[in-house]
Prior knowledge:
nucleotide-binding, sequence-specific DNA binding, 4 domains, Beta-Lactamase, about 675 residues, AAA+_ATPase, elongated, disordered C terminus, AAA_lid_NorR, Rossmann fold
Amino acid sequence: MEVLMNQSQGRLDENSAGEEGYNLIRQLELLIPAVSARILKTSTDTLDEVIYSSLQEIIQLLKLSRGGLLEVSEGICKVKISHAWFDVDVEVVPNTIDLSQLFPWSYRQLVRDCTTVAITSLDSLPAEAATDKQSFAQMGVQSSLTIPLLIGHRVHHLIVVHAVKQQWTWPEPLITSLRLLGEIFVSALDRRDVFRSLEIYQARLEIAAVSAEVGLWELDPVTGNIWATNSAKVLFEFGQDEQITLSNLLDKIHPDDRSLVVETVDKAIDADTESYVEYRLPRADGEIRWLLSRGRVHQKGATASKYLVGVTADITSRKQMEHKLHEQFREINRLRELLEHENTLLRSEVGLNEDKYSFLSVSSAMQGVKLHIEQVANTGSTVLIQGETGTGKELVAQAIHRLSDRSKRLMVTVNCAALPSALIESELFGREKGAFTGALSRQKGRFELAHESTLFLDEIAEMPLETQAKLLRALQNGVFERLGSPVSIKVDVRIIAATNRNLYEEVEEGRFRRDLYYRLNIFPIQVPPLRDRVEDIPPLVWKFVSEFGQNMGRKISRIASQDMARLMAYSWPGNVRELRNVVERAMITSQGKSLDLTHFDLAPPRPLHPSIMTLEEVECRHIQDAIGFTSGKIKGKGGAAEILGLHPSTLYSRMRKLNIQCNAIKLRGDISSL
């Protein structure tokens, strides 16, 4: 959970600041690998300088006034400023700050609850943060961002930046980037602490008499003789009674490392410096062991000869771990490159469409759909797409997303009919580990994944009622909770829903929430069935022929006119999806350059008995007779709805489903047929 107080102004907000804010955040993201590489290359002695210069670069890039790293000691309320940079005209703060006294509210949020505190305006602080507000004001702070940095389960450092000259808003990408940079700094400091602890430990080994894992030795550079403890002889692969010399020790060392060992010894003796060398030593059984030898020059008297006294340890396990980590990093980089490549291919695939709408259409019936797409694409409004199965509702959703200002991120799709009712809430809103039986890990929901993008809810009518209530809240407020978590998550998501059912009828039948229906039905788009746009059939057929021809390695260049006429005369109850399947079957069976459709029966299914109408036909005929009798009057006294005993909206719904047009009905005023 993050305590975010950024509700009003700010130049860094990508949405409010436009391209300037986006570019600043992009530059900060590009700075991360550069800082990481710089940290990796530096030594422990120059680490502080590199962190300081990196902080200066970050703060100046963001045009802020002050910032730094604060070291938090366990069980102590005071924090120490370990690294900081201040603008020339900004007041310098003390090196040690008692957070619990000056900033008690922030201290609880940061150290106890491990949450980020982002403050745009001091006036936005809650009443219980009055002391914090006073302290910030005394320091001249107008806006502040403080991020806790953990090592293990404890807050180890805080990274903090201040805006003194004006107020700032802290967008999530900025917080994420600063947190990552802070973690890089703290990880490097922790590694240095570990390294220095190792140095102390190794220094103690130098005065140890005997250790099971460490051997002590003394080299006479004049004679080359080496005195060694028994444990050192074991490490060097010598017997207990064998005499060790530098020459026969070099014979045992890996040929590629011998010159390095000699160079290290000579340099230590000539310059009176400490020696440190890692080298390989092949064993008789073929195993390669890694040894670390560290020594320093010792002189027993003013005129006595110099000796190199040192300690040797087996570091094979460490080297194996380093190698394993190196391989893991290589694998991570490989997978990252693969993911980037797949993402590029996916975006390319999404972009391979006939036009900006991503679907073929030359018919007048689809021109209205295209007009609606252009009207609503950049508004951010919720869209409800309705149409029969196979009409291309998802393609309409993709076109809306592609033409919107959210197109830089991929649209996230959820098929509500494909998910079990018990899992659909977890899929939409995410879950915490242990939220229910089988929830073995934490998982983000589709709403989180679709942040600043579009969430397409296909087959929305199949969503359970209990999930509809939570969806309604997310649509109204942009807020939801993961399963098993009380923490509210706020997202910016555009919703596009689709269904092949009549949602109003679902509401009337009690299967769909009325309030959710009105929330979704802000901008409805009706996708016409293929039978109402037969002029689209020829270009669609050729599109599918080209697609399957590439996949199957076949080239079809002709389609008989009578076959195309049969395709255009068929009613296509399965719409474009059925047409695609018919073309695919024909591509499989066709020989030569012509598409052969002679073996496919495209006639509509025959009734069981020619004299018996289907229930749908009876209903259609009955409604037509009622409308004809009332001379086209639908609602009101004496209207067709009253005669049929239906609510006018229900009658209109049935007419749309049965494709009944009033102007096509013969108006006769004869009730005998009813």
